[in-house]
Amino acid sequence: ALLLFYPVLKKPCRGFFLGLLLIYFYVRHRRFSTSKQTLTWVPDSFFSSLLSGRISTLKDETGAIFIDRDPSLFAPILNFLRTKELHPRSIDVHLLMHEAEFYGITPLVRKLQLCDELDRSSCGTVLFNGYLPPPVYPVKRRNRHSVAGPQFMGGRSGPVERAPVRRSNTMPPNLGNSGILSKAAIEEKLPGSGLGADPGMVRIICGHHNWIALAYAQFVVCYRVKESSGWQLVFTSPRLDWVIDRVALNAKVMGGSLGDNDKMVAVASGTEIILWSICADGNGNEIGVFSLNVPVEALFFVGNQLIATSHTGKVGVWNAVTKHWQNQDVVPINSYDTAGSFLILGCNNGSIYYIDVQKFPLRMKDNDLLVTELYRDPSEDAITALSVYLTPKTSDSGNWIEIAYGTSSGTVRVIVQHPETVGSGPQLFQTFSVHRSPVTKIMLSEKHLISVCADNNHVRTWTVTRFRGMISTQPGSTPLTSFKILSLEDIDGHGGCSAGTEIGPYGERDDQQVFIQRVVPDTDKLYVRLSSNGKRVCEVRSVDGTSITAFMVHECEGSSRIGSRPRRYLFSGHGNGSIQMWDLTTAMEIAALGGPTEEELLELLDQCDLALTRTPDMSPAASLTHTSTPRTSTCRYILLTHEHHYILDRFMFS
């Protein structure tokens, strides 16, 4: 329009036209033009730096400035600079916010943040159940050495000789019934971590009854919940000199020399283990420091006994009655499970062994834990995963014992011990040869048999038929579903902990179990999926936008009211040290939605640098997790073809 008046006005308007000097942009094959005044009314933006010469420019033959960004998103940004108006319903708020942050258009970023927050609340969705702020950073623990001496067998007195393994075809007839972190703390470099672990983020969450324990890099805290008062912080350990890798919690200590109301919590790092007792008033006392002499790769309680195992073939046991710690050498251990007072071990030589840890010190013989062989795999493949299921009692002689296990070759087998056939040993019941990679997890429950192999967490599920609570040969196990829980792990050294991000399955064996899926390491989103068919139960997203660094599903006991039942919760630990809780009992009552959609998976992968991630550890069991080398680009290519073929074109360049 101004050009129409140019022949009439000519000289008087020449200065006016200089003020409206046009700037041309060439954005990915699209040409834009605007004025310098439009571009520079927002101070300290990308455009003001560009036009002032602080940012080098690339121009085409016509003098248009080239910008390598999305032209479809550049257009609404340019319209905002012209009109200062925004129409959020016609745009993708998240994508436009990313572009506005790149160009430094602060007023637009604030408007887009407001638009995004209108659909989200800091109080979360209906499933959001609670929030625990970061605890106060504790004082440093006094330097104390590991417990040593011949009476502890696991101190620094040297390795213990390997005890012979006693072979037996029988199983004992009755197994029983089954604050804010200070800035100085955040900036402190952790000694000996080697990974630059963030001291302010949650690394591991574990639960027992109405208690949970949270492990940060150098200390552990314990919470308990009561119906009237909610969650309360009851114990904070001193700050340790090393990074915590394993946590175990016992919130129901029965008998022993500890008080009736005392609880126990233990942590491990490397070869060292520290055990505390927690009194009813919340005060904690250090029971002792023990050493397994080899890296601790599993830490848990069997009754009052603290158990530590290593894949190298060593088991450590601390007894609450005798306060005795001892180490036992066995063959290399790949997997474990518990049944009553029994510890069941799956080993590298193809055998399943058991130890009755409740019989100490009555059954001790020359410091021998009486490790007994229960069963040997017909092919002698390494037992890489196992699950023990105890059915209701069928006679006075004991229980019908069922054990499902997986091997390094991908075979899944089920063995059964009859209470009436004492002396014959467990019998092979059924074999499945459907996995082509080592089985990493297995779960035998009332209704399902679930196995997971190392092929990017490939899950196979069968329906188990039972008669009077016992597994039945008619009609046997029916194939139910096959799906994957794609989960990329971080290998760039941000201090993550694999023990805090186990996919599951979680839940009681007489109920529907779930997997937890965190697709990429740096995300604020988790998917909860049914273990029986892979369908999505729900999706949870952190209410404060912080990344999720650890998670765990735990069932808390109900109130004392008649008819009150336990409720299932998902606990998520975050990079800022907080804990967020989600009501899965309510979520399970809602129809399943399925796993991440194709668009959601692409969106998540767009936020992830594939060069800094790896596929799930190909080791056959969680206890075999070692430092892995990054996968090659070819491996990432195969990973994506397995999950969604159409992703290839976008990520081949990675």
UniProtKB/TrEMBL annotation:
One cellular component (GO) term of this entry: plasma membrane
Domain of life: Eukaryota
SUPFAM superfamilies found in the cross-reference section: POZ domain, WD40 repeat-like
Bilayer-crossing regions: none
Biological-process GO terms, alphabetical: protein homooligomerization
Domain BTB: 21-120
Keyword Phosphoprotein applies: yes
Keywords: Cell membrane, Membrane, Phosphoprotein, Repeat, WD repeat
Region listing for Disordered, in residue ranges: 148-172
UniProt cross-references to Pfam families, sorted A to Z: BTB_2
Cell location: Cell membrane
Self-association and partners: Interacts with HCN3.
Family classification: Belongs to the KCTD3 family.
Function (record text): Accessory subunit of potassium/sodium hyperpolarization-activated cyclic nucleotide-gated channel 3 (HCN3) up-regulating its cell-surface expression and current density without affecting its voltage dependence and kinetics.
Name of the protein described by the UniProt record: BTB/POZ domain-containing protein KCTD3
Species the sequence originates in: Denticeps clupeoides (denticle herring)
Gene label: SHKBP1
